[in-house]
Amino acid sequence: MISLSSQQSTSATTPVWRQASSQMLAALTVALPALFGAAAAQAQTVTIKYSHFLPANSGFNQKVALPWCAAIEKDSGGKMKCQLYPSLALGGTPAQLADQVKNGVADVVWTSPSYSTGRFPRTEALELPFTMPGDGLMASKAMWDYVQQHAMADYKDFKLLAIHSGGNSVISTASKPIMSAEDLKGLKLRSPSRFAALFLSAIGSTPVNMPLAQVTEGISKGVIDGAMIPWEVLPAIKVDEVTKYHMEGMPSQPGFIQTPMAIMMNKAKYDSLAPELKAVIDKHSGPALVELTGKAWDEGIADTRKKLAAQGNKTLVIKDAEYNAMKKTTASVEADWIKQATARGLDGKQLAAAVHSIGQKYLTK
């Protein structure tokens, strides 16, 4: 048995290097738990992989994706953050984004249900001609209401964060001003969706299915005469630089064709979140996100109009008689869709009536 005096004597004769080692060990004993705690806290940060198909300088990326990401990071106290992948940086095509988010390649995507023919059958009613208001915010609210009431079954494999309007698809041409349905006959025009293609075919144009990234070059080389594209997207892909004329109806009238856009989240990713983080996602989704996107689209439309006017492009508003003639000429698009939807077991007539009713409600607001 070692006495206290013997311990003190032994300590006094301990080499300096061994005393230093003991001190270092004691310091590490205190520091390591703190370090591991910090690492654990960092490991708990949830990263949301957010993919879309427009460039980083686009209105969607700057005015919707970035602010949404900043909001969820702030309200989660830094426990959630985004990693954005604009311009399809995760690979694939716009049409494949729905599968990417369903399969967990991305956690959140922005795409259009229109790009997946037949996959979102109830949502297709939103693409019927002359149904949605021209105002981006009002059209987005109308689309969200319609989907909530009639089309949520389309999104059973996803956590739907928002549906909004991609804006009125104006008809932009390189060299020929368009003021009537007659003027459209024989033109080769890029179509953004199946319904836009049916619309153009009914009028007598030749719809061309072409990725957004190829449209500007297609027009500049004369492969196509123009394109049917929403206002906000024109400068994002520089179509405004190769076209001169942009034809639309009156602001008080429903647009020719609108493309619904969806922001969807991987269902398993959402379900894996802690309750407080789900609450943050919920707070910044639904009506709040519809409001954000709708306002962003309206701002983008206003900015685009100013930009195009400054560079000498012409906006052409067709007269009521020509507008009504276009409605009459393209009425077959809706009639055919009702038959197809009914054949798939849906009440096509009721869905078409609902989208007209809800669109009219927001048109008058």
Automatic annotation (TrEMBL):
<keyword id="KW-0732">Signal</keyword>
<protein>
    <submittedName>
        <fullName>C4-dicarboxylate transporter</fullName>
    </submittedName>
</protein>
<dbReference type="InterPro" id="IPR038404">
    <property type="entry name" value="TRAP_DctP_sf"/>
</dbReference>
<feature type="signal peptide">
    <location>
        <begin position="1"/>
        <end position="43"/>
    </location>
</feature>
<dbReference type="InterPro" id="IPR018389">
    <property type="entry name" value="DctP_fam"/>
</dbReference>
<dbReference type="GO" id="GO:0055085">
    <property type="term" value="P:transmembrane transport"/>
</dbReference>
<dbReference type="Pfam" id="PF03480">
    <property type="entry name" value="DctP"/>
</dbReference>
